[in-house]
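Hi,

I'm pasting everything inline rather than attaching a file, because the server keeps stripping attachments. The sequence lines come first, and each chain or strand is labelled.
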Amino acid sequence: MILSGELPAGAQLAEEALAEKCGVSRTPVREALRRLESDLLVTRTDTQRSFVADWSIDDVADAFELRAMLEGKAARRAAERMTDQALERMCVANRQIGAAVRKGVPDVVGFLEGNRDFHAIILEVAASRRLAALLGTLIEQPVVWRTAHHYSHEALRRSHGEHEELIAAFARRDGAWAEAIMTGHILRAYHAYADAHRGLAEQGVIREAAE
Amino acid sequence: MILSGELPAGAQLAEEALAEKCGVSRTPVREALRRLESDLLVTRTDTQRSFVADWSIDDVADAFELRAMLEGKAARRAAERMTDQALERMCVANRQIGAAVRKGVPDVVGFLEGNRDFHAIILEVAASRRLAALLGTLIEQPVVWRTAHHYSHEALRRSHGEHEELIAAFARRDGAWAEAIMTGHILRAYHAYADAHRGLAEQGVIREAAE
DNA sequence: TGGGATCGTATTGTATACAAATATGGAAGG
DNA sequence: CCTTCCATATTTGTATACAATACGATCCCA
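And the predicted assembly:
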């Protein structure tokens, strides 16, 4: 509801009201609120009331910057620990991405699936539970979904190419190379997001908090 | 209870049992378990049962490595945004640390207070809610407390000196310098921890999970 | 003896009731 | 017209009951 805009930034989230709206009791609503709070999608006042957090474009930039650093780190660790078997799985995932972007009209769902698998394998090979936990709070899949449809065909193709290069870095077990590519890959995705966001804002699709 | 060793690694954490032990109902226990889980102090099976996580020395190394990176990043951001007023507050905190380590027998409590304030100010000036949230899950104050008493007087003095150097970097608004010092500062703390841990293990104070 | 079904027990998920804390609106006073 | 205070209405915190699920031991049958 937050991500769809049904609940605008700043809206109060009263447990009772949400419970009734969702047809459940307050207990599961409370748990959900706590998780959303830890993901910074919800903020709480000093007196324990919950409100929809105000995700300005600066917050998104902040999140992407941290994600670039952490995924870069993950790529470095993965390169140092890469197995031939995992490498093969990454190739499979990127072939799916390649197939999705080569179509006349990009298959965004296929792209996202392949993309998710690709990054999940890296995180798995990186073998750091904490790193995985930190990245988990940073990557809001619904955000990715909502915006991926607005990425240009060109941007999707480039993404596929960067994955190719990552595979090359992994094949050579070159951690520094993998980290550099990954960091750039995420930051490019950020700018694609920012461009798409600006475009949507101009079309009036996104309501900014300032309005 | 986990950190004191009262609950050994691998012990099952049944809500009812904990509730009775703590004299509260299951509801607050559930919330606590969820938070401990997000901090990786507790793990859950695929069928939702909770157990004390197994924090091997590798996990601690992992956490420190990530913390070094993130606090380094925070120091860089803080240097770029530093105000004279915040700088003054950091000096105050480090004077407390200085006073604590200059005593014949180090005042560990005073040291920890000053240390906490010092790092909190940096995080505040860094002005990234997400970075603060990520670091929050990484810095288990009880872990710091439990081990700080075993740090050598020499290590505490050196820590004070590194804070001095951080202040110098902040005074010059030199982000790269601040990041470098901070990263080294945390990694040094890790090795002090690892040394102390080894010493404790030899004395039999710490029971390893392997036993 | 080994593998698998089954039933009792243990544990978690959810709903609901009530207590405590907090916010709100209006009346009184300056 | 603004502030202060209080009564009332919201909202959250906790306890408890019951339902759903998972575990483990036992029994049964090759």
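Chain A is about 70% helix and 5% strand.

If the labels don't parse on your end, tell me and I'll reformat.
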